[in-house]
Amino acid sequence: QAEVVFFASREPMLGKSITLRQILDAKTPEQAANLAYRELPIRYAQRILQIEALPEWQASRELVEVHRLYSENFKDIRLVELDVKELEPFTEVIETIKGRMKEVIPMLATAMRNLQWADGYSEAAIVQWLDAFFLSRIGTEMLTSQYMASAKPDAVALRRRRVGVVDFACDPVNICEQAARHARKLVKQHYDESADVEIVVESGVGGKSSFEIESRIRFPYVPNYLFYIMVELLKNSARATVEAQQENPGQRRPIVITVGADRREVAIRVWDQAGGIPFHAAEKVWSYMYSTASKAAREFDEQGTPLAGYGVGLPLSRLYARYLGGALYLQSMPGVGTCAYLYLKRLESEAREELPERSSVSSCSLV
Ligand code: W6P
Protein backbone atom coordinates (compact mmCIF):
# COMPACT_ATOMS: atom_id res chain seq x y z
CA GLN A 1 0.00 0.00 0.00
CA ALA A 2 2.85 2.39 0.82
CA GLU A 3 4.23 1.68 -2.62
CA VAL A 4 0.87 2.47 -4.20
CA VAL A 5 0.78 5.84 -2.44
CA PHE A 6 4.36 6.57 -3.47
CA PHE A 7 3.70 5.81 -7.14
CA ALA A 8 0.42 7.64 -7.19
CA SER A 9 2.18 10.77 -6.02
CA ARG A 10 4.40 10.74 -9.09
CA GLU A 11 3.03 12.31 -12.17
CA PRO A 12 3.14 10.37 -15.39
CA MET A 13 6.26 11.31 -17.38
CA LEU A 14 7.73 13.25 -14.49
CA GLY A 15 5.09 15.91 -14.59
CA LYS A 16 4.19 15.74 -18.22
CA SER A 17 1.72 13.79 -20.21
CA ILE A 18 2.88 11.93 -23.28
CA THR A 19 2.64 13.32 -26.77
CA LEU A 20 1.78 11.33 -29.83
CA ARG A 21 5.39 11.86 -30.90
CA GLN A 22 6.69 10.02 -27.86
CA ILE A 23 4.34 7.16 -28.58
CA LEU A 24 5.47 7.15 -32.22
CA ASP A 25 9.07 7.17 -31.04
CA ALA A 26 8.52 4.01 -29.02
CA LYS A 27 8.82 1.92 -32.17
CA THR A 28 10.84 -1.01 -30.99
CA PRO A 29 9.51 -3.49 -28.44
CA GLU A 30 12.31 -2.40 -26.08
CA GLN A 31 11.33 1.28 -26.24
CA ALA A 32 7.63 0.53 -25.90
CA ALA A 33 8.36 -1.78 -22.97
CA ASN A 34 10.39 0.91 -21.21
CA LEU A 35 7.63 3.46 -21.66
CA ALA A 36 4.95 1.08 -20.37
CA TYR A 37 7.12 -0.12 -17.49
CA ARG A 38 7.74 3.41 -16.31
CA GLU A 39 4.21 4.78 -16.82
CA LEU A 40 1.82 1.96 -15.93
CA PRO A 41 2.52 1.58 -12.18
CA ILE A 42 1.96 5.31 -11.65
CA ARG A 43 -1.34 5.25 -13.46
CA TYR A 44 -2.64 2.08 -11.83
CA ALA A 45 -1.69 3.42 -8.41
CA GLN A 46 -3.57 6.65 -9.04
CA ARG A 47 -6.73 4.75 -10.01
CA ILE A 48 -6.45 2.59 -6.87
CA LEU A 49 -6.41 5.76 -4.76
CA GLN A 50 -9.22 7.26 -6.80
CA ILE A 51 -11.42 4.32 -5.81
CA GLU A 52 -10.28 4.46 -2.19
CA ALA A 53 -11.22 8.12 -2.06
CA LEU A 54 -14.87 7.20 -2.58
CA PRO A 55 -16.75 6.99 0.68
CA GLU A 56 -17.97 3.45 1.32
CA TRP A 57 -16.47 2.05 -1.86
CA GLN A 58 -16.10 -1.27 -0.09
CA ALA A 59 -19.87 -1.65 -0.04
CA SER A 60 -19.95 -1.89 -3.82
CA ARG A 61 -19.20 -5.30 -5.27
CA GLU A 62 -18.07 -3.81 -8.57
CA LEU A 63 -15.80 -1.18 -7.00
CA VAL A 64 -14.15 -3.83 -4.84
CA GLU A 65 -13.61 -5.96 -7.94
CA VAL A 66 -12.14 -3.12 -10.03
CA HIS A 67 -9.91 -2.16 -7.07
CA ARG A 68 -8.69 -5.75 -6.93
CA LEU A 69 -7.98 -5.85 -10.68
CA TYR A 70 -5.98 -2.62 -10.55
CA SER A 71 -4.07 -3.82 -7.47
CA GLU A 72 -3.13 -6.99 -9.32
CA ASN A 73 -1.99 -4.98 -12.33
CA PHE A 74 0.14 -2.82 -10.06
CA LYS A 75 1.67 -5.82 -8.33
CA ASP A 76 2.35 -7.71 -11.57
CA ILE A 77 4.07 -4.81 -13.27
CA ARG A 78 6.13 -4.00 -10.17
CA LEU A 79 7.24 -7.60 -9.74
CA VAL A 80 8.19 -8.36 -13.32
CA GLU A 81 11.79 -7.79 -14.19
CA LEU A 82 12.22 -5.74 -17.31
CA ASP A 83 15.01 -7.32 -19.29
CA VAL A 84 15.17 -5.89 -22.80
CA LYS A 85 17.04 -8.94 -24.01
CA GLU A 86 14.33 -11.31 -22.86
CA LEU A 87 10.93 -9.62 -23.14
CA GLU A 88 8.78 -12.74 -22.97
CA PRO A 89 7.94 -12.45 -19.24
CA PHE A 90 7.03 -8.79 -19.70
CA THR A 91 4.84 -9.65 -22.68
CA GLU A 92 3.04 -12.24 -20.57
CA VAL A 93 2.33 -9.69 -17.85
CA ILE A 94 0.98 -7.19 -20.37
CA GLU A 95 -1.24 -9.86 -21.92
CA THR A 96 -2.60 -10.81 -18.50
CA ILE A 97 -3.28 -7.15 -17.70
CA LYS A 98 -5.07 -6.60 -20.99
CA GLY A 99 -7.31 -9.59 -20.33
CA ARG A 100 -8.06 -8.37 -16.82
CA MET A 101 -9.14 -4.91 -17.95
CA LYS A 102 -11.87 -6.02 -20.35
CA GLU A 103 -14.82 -5.65 -17.98
CA VAL A 104 -13.73 -2.51 -16.17
CA ILE A 105 -15.87 -0.04 -18.08
CA PRO A 106 -19.24 -1.83 -17.75
CA MET A 107 -18.44 -2.70 -14.11
CA LEU A 108 -17.70 0.89 -13.18
CA ALA A 109 -20.70 2.21 -15.08
CA THR A 110 -22.90 -0.22 -13.13
CA ALA A 111 -21.22 0.64 -9.82
CA MET A 112 -21.73 4.36 -10.29
CA ARG A 113 -25.31 3.93 -11.45
CA ASN A 114 -26.04 2.04 -8.22
CA LEU A 115 -24.22 4.65 -6.16
CA GLN A 116 -26.27 7.41 -7.67
CA TRP A 117 -29.55 5.66 -7.06
CA ALA A 118 -28.67 4.44 -3.59
CA ASP A 119 -26.95 7.49 -2.17
CA GLY A 120 -28.18 10.38 -4.21
CA TYR A 121 -24.77 11.46 -5.45
CA SER A 122 -24.97 14.30 -7.91
CA GLU A 123 -24.93 13.31 -11.51
CA ALA A 124 -22.26 15.85 -12.45
CA ALA A 125 -19.92 14.53 -9.77
CA ILE A 126 -20.34 11.00 -11.04
CA VAL A 127 -19.71 11.99 -14.65
CA GLN A 128 -16.55 13.76 -13.51
CA TRP A 129 -15.36 10.77 -11.52
CA LEU A 130 -15.95 8.37 -14.40
CA ASP A 131 -14.45 10.75 -16.99
CA ALA A 132 -11.25 10.89 -14.92
CA PHE A 133 -11.14 7.13 -14.47
CA PHE A 134 -11.90 6.27 -18.09
CA LEU A 135 -9.53 8.88 -19.49
CA SER A 136 -6.76 7.24 -17.52
CA ARG A 137 -8.00 3.85 -18.75
CA ILE A 138 -7.63 5.05 -22.36
CA GLY A 139 -4.05 6.07 -21.56
CA THR A 140 -3.05 2.75 -20.01
CA GLU A 141 -4.82 0.88 -22.80
CA MET A 142 -2.80 2.91 -25.32
CA LEU A 143 0.45 2.01 -23.55
CA THR A 144 -0.30 -1.72 -23.37
CA SER A 145 -1.63 -1.83 -26.94
CA GLN A 146 1.38 0.05 -28.21
CA TYR A 147 3.66 -2.45 -26.53
CA MET A 148 1.77 -5.48 -27.87
CA ALA A 149 1.64 -4.03 -31.37
CA SER A 150 5.38 -3.47 -31.42
CA ALA A 151 6.23 -6.79 -29.76
CA LYS A 152 3.94 -8.80 -32.03
CA PRO A 153 3.34 -6.77 -35.16
CA ASP A 154 0.79 -8.38 -37.42
CA ALA A 155 1.13 -8.65 -41.17
CA VAL A 156 -1.20 -5.74 -41.82
CA ALA A 157 0.79 -3.41 -39.59
CA LEU A 158 4.01 -4.35 -41.31
CA ARG A 159 2.67 -3.73 -44.78
CA ARG A 160 1.12 -0.38 -43.89
CA ARG A 161 2.63 2.71 -42.44
CA ARG A 162 1.78 1.77 -38.93
CA VAL A 163 3.77 2.33 -35.80
CA GLY A 164 2.00 0.14 -33.31
CA VAL A 165 -1.55 1.42 -32.94
CA VAL A 166 -0.75 4.74 -34.60
CA ASP A 167 -1.13 5.30 -38.33
CA PHE A 168 1.31 7.93 -39.59
CA ALA A 169 -0.96 8.72 -42.50
CA CYS A 170 -4.42 8.13 -41.13
CA ASP A 171 -7.03 8.99 -43.77
CA PRO A 172 -10.10 10.42 -42.00
CA VAL A 173 -12.34 10.39 -45.09
CA ASN A 174 -11.66 6.71 -45.58
CA ILE A 175 -12.41 5.97 -41.93
CA CYS A 176 -15.67 7.95 -42.15
CA GLU A 177 -16.66 5.84 -45.15
CA GLN A 178 -15.87 2.62 -43.27
CA ALA A 179 -17.85 3.85 -40.26
CA ALA A 180 -20.79 4.76 -42.51
CA ARG A 181 -20.86 1.26 -44.00
CA HIS A 182 -20.70 -0.25 -40.54
CA ALA A 183 -23.50 1.97 -39.20
CA ARG A 184 -25.78 1.03 -42.09
CA LYS A 185 -25.11 -2.64 -41.42
CA LEU A 186 -26.04 -2.15 -37.75
CA VAL A 187 -29.28 -0.42 -38.74
CA LYS A 188 -30.28 -3.35 -40.94
CA GLN A 189 -29.41 -5.82 -38.19
CA HIS A 190 -31.26 -3.89 -35.54
CA TYR A 191 -34.44 -2.99 -37.43
CA ASP A 192 -34.82 -5.04 -40.57
CA GLU A 193 -33.44 -5.27 -44.07
CA SER A 194 -35.78 -2.60 -45.35
CA ALA A 195 -34.56 -0.02 -42.85
CA ASP A 196 -31.89 2.13 -44.36
CA VAL A 197 -30.23 5.47 -43.88
CA GLU A 198 -28.46 7.51 -46.49
CA ILE A 199 -25.01 8.63 -45.41
CA VAL A 200 -22.98 11.03 -47.53
CA VAL A 201 -19.29 11.67 -46.94
CA GLU A 202 -17.83 14.88 -48.34
CA SER A 203 -14.42 16.37 -47.78
CA GLY A 204 -13.01 19.84 -47.84
CA VAL A 205 -10.11 18.93 -50.08
CA GLY A 206 -10.12 21.01 -53.24
CA GLY A 207 -10.84 24.30 -51.51
CA LYS A 208 -8.39 27.10 -51.92
CA SER A 209 -7.04 27.01 -48.40
CA SER A 210 -3.56 26.14 -47.30
CA PHE A 211 -4.00 22.43 -47.78
CA GLU A 212 -4.73 22.86 -51.47
CA ILE A 213 -1.64 20.90 -52.37
CA GLU A 214 -2.94 17.85 -50.59
CA SER A 215 -4.95 15.40 -52.60
CA ARG A 216 -6.20 13.74 -49.44
CA ILE A 217 -6.18 14.71 -45.81
CA ARG A 218 -3.76 12.55 -43.86
CA PHE A 219 -2.48 12.91 -40.32
CA PRO A 220 -0.87 10.80 -37.62
CA TYR A 221 -3.61 9.33 -35.48
CA VAL A 222 -5.00 6.18 -33.91
CA PRO A 223 -7.45 4.93 -36.56
CA ASN A 224 -9.24 2.72 -34.02
CA TYR A 225 -10.22 5.77 -31.98
CA LEU A 226 -11.54 7.67 -34.96
CA PHE A 227 -13.52 4.64 -36.13
CA TYR A 228 -15.00 4.15 -32.66
CA ILE A 229 -16.07 7.80 -32.36
CA MET A 230 -17.56 7.92 -35.86
CA VAL A 231 -19.53 4.70 -35.42
CA GLU A 232 -20.86 5.98 -32.11
CA LEU A 233 -21.99 9.31 -33.59
CA LEU A 234 -23.51 7.59 -36.62
CA LYS A 235 -25.34 5.03 -34.47
CA ASN A 236 -27.09 7.88 -32.67
CA SER A 237 -27.84 9.83 -35.82
CA ALA A 238 -28.97 6.73 -37.70
CA ARG A 239 -31.26 5.49 -34.95
CA ALA A 240 -32.92 8.89 -34.66
CA THR A 241 -33.17 9.13 -38.46
CA VAL A 242 -34.83 5.73 -38.84
CA GLU A 243 -37.32 6.62 -36.12
CA ALA A 244 -38.07 9.96 -37.78
CA GLN A 245 -38.48 8.21 -41.13
CA GLN A 246 -40.94 5.76 -39.63
CA GLU A 247 -42.99 8.57 -38.18
CA ASN A 248 -42.89 10.69 -41.27
CA PRO A 249 -42.07 8.61 -44.33
CA GLY A 250 -41.39 10.17 -47.66
CA GLN A 251 -39.05 12.85 -46.45
CA ARG A 252 -35.40 12.40 -47.42
CA ARG A 253 -33.13 12.66 -44.39
CA PRO A 254 -29.55 12.03 -45.45
CA ILE A 255 -26.84 12.11 -42.78
CA VAL A 256 -24.02 14.27 -44.09
CA ILE A 257 -20.44 13.84 -42.91
CA THR A 258 -18.09 16.67 -43.82
CA VAL A 259 -14.34 16.40 -43.28
CA GLY A 260 -12.17 19.48 -43.34
CA ALA A 261 -8.63 20.30 -42.30
CA ASP A 262 -5.98 22.95 -42.13
CA ARG A 263 -2.36 22.49 -41.11
CA ARG A 264 -3.17 22.21 -37.42
CA GLU A 265 -6.51 20.47 -37.17
CA VAL A 266 -8.83 17.96 -38.72
CA ALA A 267 -12.53 18.67 -38.21
CA ILE A 268 -15.41 16.31 -38.86
CA ARG A 269 -19.05 17.34 -38.80
CA VAL A 270 -21.89 14.84 -38.68
CA TRP A 271 -25.21 16.44 -39.53
CA ASP A 272 -28.45 14.52 -39.18
CA GLN A 273 -31.99 15.65 -39.88
CA ALA A 274 -33.80 13.59 -37.29
CA GLY A 275 -35.49 16.36 -35.37
CA GLY A 276 -32.80 17.28 -32.84
CA ILE A 277 -32.22 16.23 -29.26
CA PRO A 278 -35.27 16.88 -27.04
CA PHE A 279 -34.64 19.56 -24.46
CA HIS A 280 -35.16 17.17 -21.54
CA ALA A 281 -32.53 14.80 -22.94
CA ALA A 282 -29.84 17.39 -23.64
CA GLU A 283 -28.07 16.90 -20.30
CA LYS A 284 -28.27 13.14 -20.46
CA VAL A 285 -26.33 12.76 -23.69
CA TRP A 286 -22.98 12.95 -21.88
CA SER A 287 -24.04 10.97 -18.87
CA TYR A 288 -22.98 7.39 -18.28
CA MET A 289 -26.28 6.70 -16.58
CA TYR A 290 -28.71 6.75 -19.45
CA SER A 291 -28.99 5.29 -22.84
CA THR A 292 -30.27 7.76 -25.42
CA ALA A 293 -32.10 4.86 -27.06
CA SER A 294 -35.76 4.40 -26.36
CA LYS A 295 -36.65 1.91 -23.66
CA ALA A 296 -38.06 -0.44 -26.28
CA ALA A 297 -34.80 -0.41 -28.19
CA ARG A 298 -32.92 -1.27 -25.01
CA GLU A 299 -35.21 -4.11 -24.07
CA PHE A 300 -34.75 -5.54 -27.54
CA ASP A 301 -31.55 -7.01 -26.21
CA GLU A 302 -30.63 -6.91 -22.55
CA GLN A 303 -26.94 -7.00 -23.33
CA GLY A 304 -27.25 -3.60 -24.86
CA THR A 305 -27.82 -3.74 -28.57
CA PRO A 306 -25.12 -2.74 -31.01
CA LEU A 307 -27.32 0.22 -31.79
CA ALA A 308 -28.32 1.22 -28.27
CA GLY A 309 -25.35 0.22 -26.16
CA TYR A 310 -24.89 0.77 -22.45
CA GLY A 311 -25.18 4.49 -22.73
CA VAL A 312 -21.42 4.90 -22.38
CA GLY A 313 -20.71 5.35 -26.09
CA LEU A 314 -21.01 9.11 -26.39
CA PRO A 315 -19.19 10.06 -23.19
CA LEU A 316 -16.44 7.59 -24.08
CA SER A 317 -16.21 9.04 -27.59
CA ARG A 318 -15.69 12.48 -26.13
CA LEU A 319 -12.88 11.09 -23.96
CA TYR A 320 -11.21 9.44 -26.96
CA ALA A 321 -11.35 12.80 -28.73
CA ARG A 322 -9.95 14.65 -25.72
CA TYR A 323 -7.29 12.07 -25.02
CA LEU A 324 -5.01 13.38 -27.77
CA GLY A 325 -5.98 17.02 -27.45
CA GLY A 326 -9.19 17.03 -29.49
CA ALA A 327 -12.80 17.83 -28.67
CA LEU A 328 -16.32 16.66 -29.41
CA TYR A 329 -19.41 18.88 -29.29
CA LEU A 330 -23.06 18.33 -30.05
CA GLN A 331 -25.44 21.05 -31.17
CA SER A 332 -29.14 20.41 -31.49
CA MET A 333 -31.29 22.36 -33.89
CA PRO A 334 -34.73 21.87 -32.32
CA GLY A 335 -37.21 20.25 -34.63
CA VAL A 336 -34.64 19.93 -37.39
CA GLY A 337 -31.60 17.87 -36.53
CA THR A 338 -28.35 17.45 -34.67
CA CYS A 339 -24.83 18.49 -35.54
CA ALA A 340 -21.81 16.79 -34.02
CA TYR A 341 -18.42 18.48 -34.35
CA LEU A 342 -15.26 16.48 -33.85
CA TYR A 343 -11.92 18.31 -33.76
CA LEU A 344 -8.62 16.46 -33.77
CA LYS A 345 -5.12 17.88 -33.47
CA ARG A 346 -3.04 17.38 -36.51
CA LEU A 347 0.52 17.89 -35.33
CA GLU A 348 1.84 15.02 -33.33
CA SER A 349 3.81 17.25 -31.00
CA GLU A 350 0.59 19.09 -30.19
CA ALA A 351 -1.58 16.03 -29.76
CA ARG A 352 -0.70 15.73 -26.11
CA GLU A 353 -2.25 13.14 -23.92
CA GLU A 354 -4.91 14.60 -21.67
CA LEU A 355 -4.84 13.14 -18.18
CA PRO A 356 -7.22 13.39 -15.26
CA GLU A 357 -6.51 16.31 -12.98
CA ARG A 358 -4.55 15.42 -9.92
CA SER A 359 -7.35 16.67 -7.71
CA SER A 360 -9.63 13.95 -8.96
CA VAL A 361 -7.25 11.45 -7.44
CA SER A 362 -6.78 12.53 -3.89
CA SER A 363 -9.55 14.84 -2.90
CA CYS A 364 -12.45 13.29 -4.69
CA SER A 365 -15.69 13.99 -3.02
CA LEU A 366 -18.93 13.06 -4.61
CA VAL A 367 -21.24 15.47 -2.89
C1 W6P B 1 -30.10 12.69 -32.46
C2 W6P B 1 -29.73 12.36 -31.04
C3 W6P B 1 -28.24 12.31 -31.13
C4 W6P B 1 -27.28 12.07 -30.17
C5 W6P B 1 -25.94 12.09 -30.53
C6 W6P B 1 -25.55 12.35 -31.84
C7 W6P B 1 -26.51 12.60 -32.80
C8 W6P B 1 -27.85 12.58 -32.45
N1 W6P B 1 -28.97 12.79 -33.23
O1 W6P B 1 -31.22 12.85 -32.88
Fold blueprint:
Blueprint lengths: L1 H7 L11 H6 L3 H24 L8 H19 L8 H13 L3 H16 L3 H29 L3 H5 L2 E2 L2 E5 L1 H19 L8 E5 L15 E3 L1 H25 L7 E7 L3 E8 L22 H5 L13 H11 L3 E7 L3 E9 L13 H4 L5
Helix pairs in contact: 1-3, 3-4, 3-7, 4-5, 4-6, 5-7, 6-7, 7-12, 9-10, 10-12
What is shown here, in short?
With 367 residues, this protein is of the alpha+beta class. The protein has helices at residues 2-8, 20-25, 29-52, 61-79, 88-100, 104-119, 123-151, 155-159, 172-190, 223-247, 295-299, 313-323, 359-362, and strands at 162-163, 166-170, 199-203, 219-221, 255-261, 265-272, 327-333, 337-345. The protein contains 13 helices and eight strands.
Describe this structure in words.
The protein has 367 residues and is of the alpha+beta class. The chain has 13 helices and eight strands. It has a five-stranded mixed β-sheet with strand order 3-5-6-8-7, covered by helices on one side. A hairpin with a 3-residue loop joins strand 7 (327-333) and strand 8. Helix 3 packs antiparallel against helix 4 (61-79). The longest helix is centred in the middle third of the chain and has 29 residues, at 123-151. Residues 292-305 and 360-367 have low confidence and may be disordered. 1,3-dihydro-2H-indol-2-one binds next to helix 10 and strand 8.
Order of helices and strands: HHHHHHHHEEHEEHEEHHEEH
Question: Main β-sheet, in a few words?
Answer: 5 strands, mixed
Q: Whole-number radius of gyration?
A: 21 Å
Strand neighbour order, sheet with most strands? 3-5-6-8-7
Ligand inventory:
1,3-dihydro-2H-indol-2-one
